[in-house]
Specification:
Number of strands of chain A: 16
InterPro entries (chain B): DUF5691
Largest sheet of chain B: 3 strands, mixed
Helix content of chain B: 55-70%
Structural class of chain B: mainly alpha
Structural class of chain A: alpha+beta
Pfam families (chain B): DUF5691
Largest interface: A-B, 66 and 62 residues
Strand content of chain B: under 5%
Radius of gyration of chain B: 34 Å
Oligomer: heterodimer
Shape of chain B: elongated
InterPro entries (chain A): Znf_SWIM
Number of helices of chain B: 28
Distance between the termini of chain B: 64 Å
Order of helices and strands of chain A: HHEEEEHHHHHHHHEEEEEEHEEEHEEE
Strand content of chain A: 25-35%
Number of domains of chain A: 4
GO molecular function (chain A): zinc ion binding
Protein name (chain A): SWIM zinc finger family protein
Number of strands of chain B: 5
Strand order of the largest sheet of chain B: 3-4-5
Number of helices of chain A: 12
């Protein structure tokens, strides 16, 4: 980890606004003693309201934070304040005091052990017997799902409108038992569809695509390798990060971070960061996950571009990737984009290779906002081609564009384009 | 490839009741049953539908662009800080940020407008400041969201041309009138006269209020006729405006009433002969007095007036009459400068030397001085304000004195306010008085406030701590941020016994805010 973080990056770590505000008050050299930093950590002792000082320390590699104060926020205001001071250049380099070195040592040790455990788990997962057992269970689970899908259609979807959530929950639970985790979440989410307008079309689409997946999995032996990987990952087979880094397709480019979106499901926060290659025009998706209280990866800042090598997960249309190696610092940049027609061609090609694609990144150049007949918002490009927007709060986008042209990045879904970031001449990159 | 809708219909009814439609393009499903075949065909169609999505053409019309901006956007550091403020960090300094930005000719970056306009929705006091700093983009955006409609016309720029007067909202039309009055008061008056009879009362009041801009004797006739208006607010506003107008018939009427109440008389009391002001409050209220804007129960007539009794209506009438009488009346009548007039002794006219009760005597003097103070405020008379502040005659009414500070020239204000603070220091009235002294508190005033803060931080009682907390809350917004270092010095140099006790929480919070503001103002300086 090299270089100091800027204030914005430190502020982004704050668990809530109150902590950010309090951190501003703590970030004063007078409050601190024994501060120091080296390439990997920052530490210091803060005089709090009590008699003894709080020892705060940040391990930048994680990043991970620790403070002896009783606050349950991670990071707490002391750590944030310390990092702000460090960001302003008010913390000098120096050797680690005993307590900081000890803590970092312990943490690294724990992390190492966790990695070993994980590796042991992975080795077990590679054991042919385990693999075979899992494949069989998944196969049985999918056969059951297939029967369930056909039952739904045979009895008629009309009943779904009044069906209790249990209908989908039961099916989802059976998929968990069958170790097809990814599918289970998808099936449970279906319960929301019959509560929306236009649900019969959506529900039939979803059921049909599930059936397509079931049939594809059954015939996985005949599928080309990429498509087989796609099917496996849709069902819930994961690929270890080490495998991706070791064997995944590597692409070096200047990757522009075009958007980031956090979603919470079952207490797990998922951050989707979209990238777009400057030379290749290729999209990529970097996922990170955080349990409650943990910090999400903030190393890819929206609106910047970084020269890096990505390693892609295998698939018919590789999209998900890991940052394998960075070759330079991130610099602010506006991504190149396409017209609406160009984007739709691109999307059609992507769907042709991965029919289960739910969202696909769009980066549209020189688009303006437009109103449809019902007052719903669209984006319209210079050729007059329009796409519907899907957003509950269009005001920031509207304010930034002022009715003029912007570069707009977002996620395309069958329901419309969810705007994530806009670039405008005066305003620069604006997360929406 | 069509047939999707047939598939949806079949799926809704169920393949037990309805056979799946035939789809020749579908590959052979092998051994699939009816339901399986329907799903397989639907999958083919669904993917085709997604991949074959066509752009909408002519379905949507581009939104008209916002007008170009004249003001440049604030520097990045200031924009970043505004973002933090809008997220709740020291949100109390938001008005100062906006005013400082507008004063230096900056505007708010467009990306922060939605959050800012949302703040203004819940906080009326903030709206004028937002209007000045939001730029044209702000108005453009507000026109598209009814929640933010308050901004349209609020910034003094009604947007659009002369047709705003015909078609605009109340705010827009008032802004248009104000702008017109700045250039050509007569034209504004004529424009209003044409539509006056057709406007509803709240609009009439809003439009009449624009007469504050460019008020002149030419407006007198219009205002006199507005004294007969059906709307109570309109009548009151017209009377208040007339009271500010020098040399008006209204002023003459009030002066005649006032002269009947206050008369000079040479008296010898305790061997000293001098001019006394003999006070006789009006005995009765009449229609004419009401027409001129003095109601039967003026505001404050039930408030405690000393001696355990309320002010009473007669005294309240007297105060109102004096407040609306041109101050020149008194310099003419007594032939003295204001400084000497305010020092003249006052006595109730009915009271003979023998039975003049002390309370009543004080009450009369207080009524007179409060009346004059209000008049000095209304008529923006700096000389009278100075005389009342320095004369030491209104020690019981520091609040009324604090109001007068606004009338003084900017250069004198700090010193006068500092004097006032030292006068009331340590009393519980201090926070409400400082409440009335607008920021920024600089120079002598800042020094006096810092001194008070440091002194009360050292006093132990709960009441002091309460007053200190209130003071800190005011100082947070108004005290010149450079005073922070002086306050820190004073706290550090407290005597040892005092220093052992913890400083109340509010003080370090104040220091943090002041430091935040200092950085903020530095970023906004041109």
């Amino acid at each position: 980890m090299s270089g100091r973080w800027d204030r914005g990056r430190v502020a982004a770590l704050a668990p809530d606004a109150a902590a950010a505000k309090a951190a501003g008050g703590v970030a004063r050299p007078a409050k601190w003693g024994g501060t120091g930093c080296d390439g990997e950590a920052v530490w210091g002792e803060c005089q709090g309201s009590g008699a003894s000082a709080y020892r705060a320390c940040a391990d930048l590699a994680g990043p991970a934070f620790r403070c002896s104060c009783p606050s349950r926020k991670i990071p707490c205001k002391h750590v944030l304040g310390l990092l702000l001071l460090w960001s302003d250049g008010a913390v000098a380099g120096g050797p680690r005091p005993g307590w900081a070195a000890e803590w970092i040592e312990q943490r690294r040790e724990r992390e190492g052990k966790a990695r070993e455990r994980k590796a042991a788990g992975a080795a077990k997962a590679r054991d042919p017997k385990t693999v075979e057992r899992r494949e069989r269970r998944v196969e049985d689970g999918l056969a059951e799902l297939d029967q369930w899908l056909r039952d739904q259609v045979a009895h008629g979807l009309a009943q779904a409108e009044k069906a209790p959530y249990g209908l989908w929950d039961d099916a989802a639970r059976r998929l968990v038992d069958a170790q097809a985790g990814a599918l289970s979440g998808q099936v449970r989410a279906l319960a929301a569809i019959p509560r929306q307008p236009g649900w019969p079309d959506r529900l039939l689409e979803e059921y049909a695509l599930l059936r397509l997946l079931v049939r594809a999995y059954r015939r996985r032996g005949e599928l080309p390798e990429g498509l087989r990987d796609t099917v496996r990952s849709r069902v819930g087979f994961t690929v270890a990060q080490d495998d991706v880094l070791g064997h995944g397709e590597r692409v070096r480019d200047r990757w522009c971070v075009t958007g980031s979106r956090d979603t919470v499901q079952d207490q797990l926060t998922t951050r989707r960061v979209w990238l777009r290659g400057r030379e290749s025009g290729r999209p990529a998706l970097v996922l990170s996950f955080a349990a409650p209280g943990a910090v999400l990866d903030s190393s890819l800042a929206v609106g910047t571009e970084v020269d890096a090598e990505l390693a892609f997960y295998p698939g018919a249309r590789p999209l998900r990737a890991l940052v394998a190696e960075r070759h330079g610092p991130a610099v602010p940049a506006t991504p190149g984009g396409t017209s609406v027609a160009g984007f739709l061609d691109d999307h059609a090609a992507a769907v042709a290779s991965d029919p289960w694609l739910e969202r696909w990144p769009a980066t549209l150049e020189r688009v303006r906002l437009a109103r449809g007949e019902g007052g719903d918002l669209h984006v319209i490009d210079e050729a007059g081609d329009a796409l519907p927007l899907r957003t509950a709060d269009p005001w920031r986008l509207l304010a930034v564009s002022g009715g003029g042209p912007v570069t707009l990045a977002g996620e395309w879904t069958p329901e419309g384009l969810r705007p994530l970031t806009a670039w405008q001449a005066d305003e620069g990159a604006v997360p929406l | 490839m069509n047939g999707w809708n047939e598939h949806v219909t079949a799926a809704l009814l169920g393949t037990e009741r309805r056979d799946p439609p035939v789809l020749p393009e579908a590959p052979d499903g092998g051994d699939a049953d009816k339901a399986g075949r329907l799903l397989d065909q639907a999958a083919l169609l669904a993917v085709a539908r997604r991949a074959g999505r066509l752009p909408g053409r002519g379905a949507a019309e581009a939104i008209a662009p916002a007008p170009g901006e004249e003001a440049p956007v604030v520097p990045p550091a200031a924009a970043e800080r505004l973002g933090r403020i809008l997220r709740g960090e020291h949100v109390e300094v938001l008005p100062e940020w906006l005013d400082a930005a507008a004063a230096h000719g900056w505007r708010v970056p467009a990306r922060l407008l939605p959050d800012l306009l949302e703040r203004g929705r819940g906080d009326r006091m903030l709206r004028p400041s937002i209007g000045r700093a939001a730029g044209r983009r702000g108005v453009w955006l507000a026109l598209r969201n009814t929640d933010w409609a308050y901004l349209v016309g609020a910034g003094g720029d009604p947007g659009g041309g002369a047709e705003v007067w015909e078609t605009g909202t109340r705010n827009q039309r008032a802004a248009h009138l104000t702008a017109l009055r700045r250039r050509d008061p007569a034209a504004a008056r004529e424009a209003l006269r044409e539509t006056w009879a057709k406007e509803p009362a709240p609009d009439r009041a809003a439009f009449l209020a624009t007469f504050r801009t460019g008020l002149s004797p030419d407006d007198e006739e219009f205002l006199e006729s507005a004294l007969e208006d059906r709307g109570k607010d309109v009548r009151q506003l017209a009377a208040d405006l007339l009271a500010r107008l020098p040399g008006s018939a209204y002023g003459e009427r009030m002066a005649a009433r006032a002269r009947a109440c206050l008369t000079p008389r040479r008296r010898t009391v305790r061997g000293r002969e001098q001019t006394w002001i003999m006070v006789e409050p009006p005995a009765a209220h009449d229609e004419d007095l009401a027409r001129d804007g003095v109601p039967f129960h003026p505001g404050g007539s039930f408030a405690p007036g000393g001696g355990g009794r309320p002010v009473g209506t007669r005294a309240a009438w007297l105060r109102e009459i004096l407040a609306r009488t041109p101050l020149g009346t008194w310099t003419d009548l007594f032939g003295l400068p204001p400084m000497e007039i305010v020092c003249l002794p006052v006595a109730g006219a009915g009271a003979s030397e023998g039975r003049s009760g002390r309370d009543e005597h004080d009450g009369d003097a207080r009524d007179v001085h409060i009346g004059w103070a209000r008049a000095a405020l209304k008529q923006h008379d700096a000389e009278w304000a100075r005389a009342l502040l320095k004369g030491g005659v209104m020690v019981d009414e520091p609040g009324a004195l604090a109001d007068l500070l606004a009338v003084l020239p900017a250069g004198e204000r700090d010193a006068a306010a500092a004097g006032l603070i030292r006068w009331v220091e340590g009393r519980s009235e201090l926070p409400p008085i400082l409440e009335r002294v607008p920021g920024p508190w600089t120079g002598d005033l800042a020094a006096a406030v810092v001194g008070t803060l440091a002194a009360s931080a050292g006093r132990p009682t709960r009441r002091d701590e309460h007053a200190l907390t209130q003071l800190c809350r005011l100082a947070e917004r108004r005290l010149d941020p450079s005073a922070a270092s002086r306050l820190e010095d004073l706290l550090a140099r407290r005597p040892p016994g005092e220093a052992a006790r913890a400083v109340p929480r509010a003080v370090p919070a104040l220091l943090t805010t002041l430091r935040f503001r200092a950085e903020m103002l530095k970023e906004l300086a041109p």
